[in-house]
Amino acid sequence: MVTLRAYDRGWLRGDVLAGATVAAYLIPQVMAYSGLAGLPPVAGLWAALPALALYALLGSSRQLSVGPESTTALMTATVIAPLAAGDPGRYAALAAGLAVIVGLLCLVCWAIRLGFVADLLSKPILVGYMAGVAIIMIIGQLERLTGVPVDGGTLLGEMWSFIKGMGQIHLATAVLGALVLAFLYLVQRQFPKLPGPLLAVLLATGATALFGLQDYGIATIGKIPSGLPPLAWPDLTDFADLLLPAVGVMLVGYTDNMLTARAFAARHRQEVDADQELLALGVANLGSGVLRGFPVSSSGSRTALADAAGARSQVYSLTALVLVICTLLFASPVLSAFPTAALGAIIVYAALRLIDLPGFRKLAAFRRSELLLALAAFAGVLLFDILYGVLAAVALSVAEMLARVARPHDAVLGIVPGVAGMHDVEDYPQARTVPGLMIYRYDSPLFFANAQDLRRRALAAVGQAPDVKWFVLNAEAIVEVDITAMEAVEELRNELTQRGIVFGMAHVKQELMDEMVSFGLAESVGRDRIFHTLPTAVAAFRAEHPQTSSESRKSWSGRLPGDDHGGGGGRHVPEPHGRRAPPGAAADLAPRRRRGRARAAPRRRGRRGGGRPRPERPARRARGAQARRAVPA
Q: Where does the record place the STAS domain (predicted)?
């Protein structure tokens, strides 16, 4: 009842209309997806019943349509076919058992609050993964669309089998499939508000009955059981064989569920509860298994249809549920004459909509590495089959994340004439550093994977700069550390001290300071070398090096606000008692900070914090050193 509380009766008309529209699209679609899963078409209707009912009661999204969908259907076929060994009864039992195990896994994840698993697949991975799934779906329908017998245990085997058998194409079947596919695209283009798949079902079924298309060798889906399915707990004797595949199905189904729910919630300024979605999806899958269905997830196309038709709450899903029940009770004899070629055409139509060509173009325009990740996921699904493709996609996402954090962006900061704050000298050729002082920023949390990278790159930066007396580590981006990182910072401090360079830190948040105190780094650095802001670090440097010219002081005080650009959240360490800012600095702090935030420095494309991995940068530092001539002392 999460989305049904405080229901506004003014929503009823839109919800009922949206429910009828979605039902008209859902009925032929889930029948097609049932065939994709290797089950009788009626199994898709059975699986839709608990999904529509239970998600409406437990889900946190007002627009999401849950039920059979293409990806989980295809994964079901991939998992079950080798285990069933051609036995239809065992096949159906295994599919129902898979749904129950997926539901149980979702409930376990809900109980221990693992909603964050929805974030394990990045956008490039999903774009490539869905395109690969679409290709598998299309190849899987070649037999239905052409009448050519297709076999083979792999995707390439099926393709080769089809090519060898092309001489056996059944012309009437191929023509009917092509006509239905063309009709679907015509309706989508010319009459987008009409339920194209439902019209295709009705017209193809009517043509089969009127013109006796079965006499021409066109196959139909055959008799569909009337009435509602009996409740039965599936046999889980194959639990061990189904557990790992169920993890993959759950991960993909839940990720798709959350991405779709969040996208539509953002349109209406609503919120989606990730953990509540685990509960709703888990119960829906349990219900599907008990009603002899197969794993379910969300449908982006049905959700978009409901939203466009005016759905304001999950009452539209309950309306669709009533219409599906009526279909099972009264319309089964009519649907038995539906041609399988038309069913295959509907699946191909749905598959082609999964290929996001604008998404590939957007990735290519943004960053080449993002496009390569999408292509790698696409190839992984095709080469390793869909289940292992999912695991490969997750591994790629995690590897990409680690690569970005392990080799992040870094910067030497300087003063830019006319721009408030301190900024990366490589973003601004006119930037100037303070003579003798290097302020270095490392744009990532510190942990074992990047600790030595920080040390190496900081030393390389010092080696390329002239006559460094002080090195100040700007820690505004260091919001998390581990003991390996602490040891690396201590090594860096020791090496710089041996060179006669003073090591200090600025923008140390209280959480980081607590860790430094526990490790002993705060005492090693010295409390008087840990600064609240960059201006106070500069003031302390000038206090010890009064030879800095008045011209340099004027350049600094006229350009630098009381803080550099933004700083980040969290509590900062109080200013050390041994070092005070110059007189008058506090009075000038607030207005200049506001100006600094209002005039954020532009950044070059691809140079975001946590950006893509980059090699060592001594040469780059050398180029930067030529560009950043120091303010004369």
A: 427-541
